[in-house]
Known about the structure:
This is Antitoxin VapB13. The protein is an all-alpha fold.
Amino acid sequence: MEEEVHRYRRSATRDGRTLSEWVRQKQRRAARAEPSGSINRLPAEIRAAARHDFPTGDIDRMLREIESGHRT
């Protein structure tokens, strides 16, 4: 345990930080790297969205309208 803390302290010193700031920074990075939602919810959310029946436009017409807006 002490050897591990010593390694962390050396890393913190090398980065110009106190050990506590170094640990906080590592914890913040780890928290940002974690997924924000459950991966298990995704399929249920997709299935729920697919059940909706909203009116849509003709894809060819929409593409023509998009293209015509980009001409200069």
